[in-house]
Backbone:
């Protein structure tokens, strides 16, 4: 890594899969909690509730484990690098969320809300360049937009 790096963040899909594994395990713990509630406290819940509760958490855990498996068998690495001269984001498998811009071209950081037929949409964070183009910084891999902003502010 270059010595002029001000900010560096890297996370791969294998690391990201741990989040989904933890959530899947939590679903199983919720199911065990229901059985514990019934057996330890000698209380019962309605059969309809029990069936739906177990079904929902079982399906959720299977989906979460499948997502974790996908992350492990499709390697990719997210990187965000800020140097004295440039701001680089490499998002695995997406050109839309990957970019490289010069620090001098950055006008400001922005948070945008899109409008849809149902009202406010999903918020987007990113950098607005002096030419008017906007580059979204996707936060799926847990990067910290405030630290990115602070690094760019420190340079400017």
Residues:
């Amino acid at each position: 890594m270059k010595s002029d790096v001000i900010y560096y963040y890297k996370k791969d899909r294998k690391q990201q899969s741990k989040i989904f594994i933890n959530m899947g395990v939590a679903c199983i713990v919720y199911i065990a909690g229901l059985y514990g509630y019934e057996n330890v406290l000698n209380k019962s819940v309605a059969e309809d509730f029990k069936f739906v509760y177990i079904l929902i958490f079982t399906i959720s855990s299977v989906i979460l484990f499948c997502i974790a498996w996908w992350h492990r068998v499709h390697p990719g690495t997210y990187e965000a690098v800020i140097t004295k001269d440039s701001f680089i984001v490499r998002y695995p498998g997406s050109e839309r969320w990957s970019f490289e811009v010069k620090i001098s071209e950055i006008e400001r950081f922005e948070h945008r809300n899109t409008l849809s037929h149902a009202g406010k949409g999903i918020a987007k964070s990113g950098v607005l360049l002096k030419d008017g183009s906007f580059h979204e910084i996707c936060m799926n891999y847990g990067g910290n937009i405030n630290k990115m902003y602070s690094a760019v502010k420190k340079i400017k």
Notes: The longest strand covers residues 106-116.
